[in-house]
Specification:
Keywords: Methyltransferase, S-adenosyl-L-methionine, Transferase
Protein name: Methyltransferase
Number of helices: 18
GO biological process, one term: methylation
Structural class: alpha/beta
Strand content: 15-25%
Bound molecules: S-adenosylmethionine
Largest sheet: 8 strands, mixed
GO molecular function: methyltransferase activity
Order of helices and strands: HHHHEHHEEHHHHHHHEHEHEEHEHEHEE
Distance between the termini: 75 Å
Organism: Streptomyces cuspidosporus
């Protein structure tokens, strides 16, 4: 055998192909083509197909007629969704929801429909195509693409704003609520929920602790929505609704200040300003609680490292390690007391005024 033949032979050994080539390449291809799956699931959610499958299997033709879609194109998307195990595809050419597929229904408990729609939507997705630029300049590309930072953009585009709010509300019910038991909110009298969104977390706190009162502080449009939800839940008389800009000031009067999935939206300079505004509103013995994903550091793989890139590209913010949070909190007049980790990637970070 010539030297050349030997190397060709080595390249063809199945064991090498499996151990050193096929699996890593297949895995890499899956990552490279991840947006195919995102778009298939987002398309189903946007068209409302999972809602139409809630009562059982249906054919592509039947669904296409209801949703005024092209039957062949819809069939192909349904078939792809079956490969992703979001749908089941039967031999008689009908489609039904798998266990995961039900979570794309609007009315399903812990529905992820709006998150699927948000992350596949053109306006939210397009800035990701500029991710290399975000890395070059070290900041968000959302405003490069849309001409406005994220929150200003959704204020001026109500449909997109509604989608974002719905997605955040669903995320809060999935992830943030799992962080609630990590801190004893029962020892507080008034929780000021800064950037409290639709009030999912505050509602849960008020339900769990009968003696607790709350302040829901957010942008005007968001506070108006939250008022409806918290009133419906029967908590209106225990909540003060305060619209405003947290970068101008934060309401006083609380003995606990909660920033739930808020700090990650900002770079260190803006995050420090926000923390300083909280500190200025707080008494010496008040408590600051952050619900945030905390990056484990030391090279440990973590979902939070990917969420961090969403922050970089979309809002210009970042997720932080415990030492980074310690430094940031210290620079804004706080002492980091504890980082409590639970079942979800969202941790409860507790700090006290220095
Ligand atoms: C990622 S969401 C988190 C919502 C909620 N705390 C949760 O855990 O689901 C960030 C929130 O910060 C609010 N926000 C953004 N900029 C703000 C500002 N300048 N002043 C007050 N709230 C703001 C947004 O409206 C949004 O509700």
């Amino acid at each position: 055998m010539t030297e050349h033949d030997e190397s060709a032979d080595q390249q063809l050994k199945p064991v090498d192909v499996i151990a050193h080539s096929a699996l890593p390449v297949a895995g890499l291809m899956q990552i490279i083509l991840g947006h195919w799956g995102t778009q298939v699931v987002s398309t189903l959610a946007t068209l409302g197909i999972p809602d139409s499958l809630a009562d059982g299997p249906r054919s592509a033709e039947d669904l296409a007629e209801q949703h005024r879609a092209d039957p062949r194109a819809l069939y192909r998307v349904l078939r792809a969704a079956a490969t992703l195990r979001v749908l089941d595809h039967t031999e008689d050419e009908t489609f039904s929801l798998t266990e995961a597929g039900h979570f794309l229904r609007t009315d399903y408990p812990f529905s992820m429909r709006y998150n699927a729609m948000l992350h596949g939507s053109r306006w939210h997705w397009d800035p990701w195509s500029l991710a290399p630029e975000a890395v070059r300049k070290g900041g968000e590309t959302f405003s490069d693409h849309h001409g406005l930072p994220y929150y200003e953009y959704i204020d001026r585009h109500p449909e997109e704003g509604d989608l974002f709010d719905h997605a955040m509300t669903a995320m809060a019910a999935q992830a943030q609520l799992l962080a609630v038991p990590l801190h004893d909110f029962g020892k507080h009298k008034v929780v000021v929920d800064v950037g409290g969104g639709a009030g999912v977390v505050l509602s849960n706190l008020l339900e769990t602790h009968a003696g607790l009162r709350g302040v829901l502080f957010d942008r005007e449009r968001v506070v108006d929505n939250a008022k409806g939800l918290l009133t419906e839940a029967g908590f209106a008389d225990r909540v003060e609704f305060v619209p405003g800009d947290m970068f101008a000031s934060v309401p006083g009067g609380g003995d606990c200040y909660l920033l739930s999935m808020v700090l990650n939206d900002y770079n260190d300079d803006k995050a420090r300003k926000l923390l300083e505004n909280c500190r200025a509103a707080m008494d010496e013995d008040a408590t600051l609680v952050l619900f945030d994903m905390v990056i484990p550091g030391n090279g440990t793989p973590s979902f939070a490292t990917l969420g961090d890139i969403e922050c970089l590209v979309v809002s210009g913010g970042e997720l932080r390690t415990e030492p980074e949070l310690n430094t940031l909190l210290g620079s804004a007049g706080f002492r980091l007391e504890a980082v409590h980790r639970g079942f979800s990637p969202v941790c409860a970070v507790v700090a006290k005024p220095e």
